[in-house]
Structure formats: structure tokens, C-alpha cells
Amino acid sequence: MSTVYIRPTVIEDAKVSYKWRNIPRLWKYTAFKTDKEITYEDEKAWLEKKLEQSNEFRFSICLVENDQYIGYMFINNITENEGEIHTVIGEMAYWGGGRAKDAAKLVLDSMFKNTSVKQIITKVNVKNLGAIKLTLDMGFEKTHEEFHQETGFDLVVFRMTKESFYEQFPDFK
Fold first, then answer.
1. Nearest Cα residue to 88 out of 13, 12, 1
2. By CB count within 10 A, which of 68, 131, 147, 172 is most buried?
3. Spatial contact of 13 and 47, defined as CB atoms under 8 Å apart
4. Which fold has domain 4-172?
């Protein structure tokens, strides 16, 4: 049984997530960089804009036991057939233990059942070994590597098709 559930992200989540923006370790392998402290007001304004975008879906990850908001996932760059998944577990005390994997299963199931998306990709920094392990454990298939010009990161690109998801996780059918 899953220890997490997902729900749509709401503006009130910014009361917690702004704190995560100020933890450099969380962003070490990502494109997010800032040279100033992110305030609640900054995060709220940013999240309001993100929640208005029609080609993104944002999900908050919460613990079943106490409803604590511990992270989020979002799918962006959505086209008719494809989207790109991103994961942040902001509460580092909950790293490991399969919570991100459980949340990813819920998010992928929701996307595949409720949209026309037939494939999800993810791009992972080659140095982010934990994320690579999670991605492979989920059954994503490595497609190629690419260089991200803006960040200077080498990325591994993975994909998961709708068919392969339901083959890997038949309980979700």
C-alpha cells in the first residue's frame, strides 16, 4: 500500500514550497538557480502563473498518515501525445523509502487515463544518481543523452509509454 497520495497543487502550497526553494542541495542537479532568497510572495506569484498554464499539470505529494505536503511532481511541455515529468521531494527527511516512486505511479496513471498523452519523458542530470535509479526502477527506458546549453548539464533522457507503464504496473489497469 502506498504511503503517499497526490492531489492538485494549490496556491496555499507555496507556504511550504518557498522554503524548499532556499535549500541549495535540492536544486544541485536542476536548472533552477537563484542568487536571492525566495520569499513566500515570490513563490506564490510564480505558482499562480504556473497553475494558469494549460500545457502543465501539477500534483502535490502528501503523506497518507498525516496529509503532510512533502513534495510535488509536474508534467510540462505537453503535446497531443507526450509530456515531460519532473519530481521534487522537498522534505529531505522523506528521501528514499519509495515515496517518489509511489507518487510517480499515481501521476503517470492519472496522465495516461485522463489525457491523450501516450508517452512521458524525463531528463535527468547524469550526476543525479538517485534520480537515475528511481527512473530505471520505474521502468523508464533510456533513449539518449543530450547537453543542456542553459545549465551546462549533460542529461540522460528516458521515456515511458502508456503500454509499458501498464505492463509494469498491471494493478493500475
1. 13
2. 131
3. yes
4. Aminopeptidase (3.40.630)
